[in-house]
Write a structure and sequence with these properties.
The structure is a single chain. The protein has 263 residues and is an alpha+beta fold. It folds into two domains: 123 residues, no CATH class; 94 residues, Roll (Chitinase A, domain 3), CATH 3.10.50.40. It contains ten helices and six strands, in the order αααααββααβαβββαα. A four-stranded antiparallel beta sheet has the order 3-2-5-4. A two-stranded antiparallel ribbon has the order 1-6. α1 crosses α9, α2 crosses α4 and α9 packs antiparallel against α10. The longest helix is centred in the C-terminal third of the chain and has 30 residues.
């Protein structure tokens, strides 16, 4: 497909690449869409494609996503403007900033909780080493700011009863046994802009990526038309430009096909 060639060439020129893990995640998205890997393979067979064909298409789409993101404005002024427009969404109730450790059994939790009583004990270091919570362990158990409703009732109750720098006793949670340490508290208000940059970037990307993809493809098609001496191929690119067809080679449902280079 013409678009695939344009994407591959631009990615190579700009040093853009995707990992096997990213491709596999894209394939798993197709599996989820079709309900099972078996159904995906059957659908691909009906479309005259193999799993390797689908992986190649997934790679091209992922490359396009990365190329298109460069067209999305996430500058400081844009982030601030988005923040002001959506400030209501960043309102919050009373919050506590805490860190915790999670264990499968009470005995382990009690043992590590006892270590914290020793002079110089490092909560964050211990959490990284022994906590079973894969989400927070690498961050030293840091849970960030949260409201009581954001976690199981037992967690919220304990967290909001603590004073900053105070560590709770071991208590039971749905996933095992835990204890936590309060870092700071803040009243209801609006999450400050400084804490929302990554959230804002993610939202802007999510809301505008489809448009950016189409813009990149349209620009690449137009540039290709200007540089193609072969009339037959140039006519095909003209047709592709006129169609304004989206680039979706991994789409599994029937859609009108964009022109290709195949004879």
């Amino acid at each position: 497909m013409i678009d695939t060639r344009l994407i591959a060439r631009a990615a190579q020129q700009q040093g853009v690449d995707v990992s096997e893990a990213e491709i596999e995640a894209k394939v798993e998205g197709g599996v989820a869409q079709m309900a099972s890997r078996h159904d995906l393979l059957k659908r691909l067979e009906a479309m005259g494609q193999t799993l390797d064909d689908y992986k190649a298409a997934a790679r091209a789409e992922l490359l396009l996503d990365k190329l298109a993101r460069a067209l999305i404005d996430t500058s400081e002024p844009q982030l601030r403007a988005y923040y002001e427009q959506h400030k209501e969404q960043f309102k919050h109730g009373p919050q506590v900033h805490a860190r915790w450790m999670l264990f499968e059994d009470q005995a382990s939790a009690e043992a590590v909780r006892g270590v914290l009583e020793e002079p110089g004990a490092d909560f964050a270091g211990l959490a990284t080493a022994v906590s079973s919570d894969s989400v927070t362990a690498d961050k030293g158990g840091d849970m960030g700011f949260f409201e009581a409703k954001d976690y199981a009732p037992a967690v919220g109750k304990v967290a909001f009863a603590l004073q900053p720098d105070q560590t709770s006793e071991v208590f039971e949670v749905p996933d095992g046994w835990a204890f936590l340490q309060a870092i700071e508290k803040r009243p209801a208000g609006v999450q400050p802009f400084s804490e929302t940059r990554e959230i804002l970037k993610a939202r802007i990307h999510a809301e505008t990526l489809d448009q950016a993809r189409q813009l990149w493809v349209n620009q690449a098609r137009e540039n290709a038309r200007l540089n193609i001496p072969d009339k037959r191929l140039r006519d095909r690119v003209e047709q592709l430009i006129a169609s304004n067809a989206p680039y979706q080679p991994t789409r599994l449902l029937d859609i009108p096909a964009a022109p290709t280079l195949s004879k």
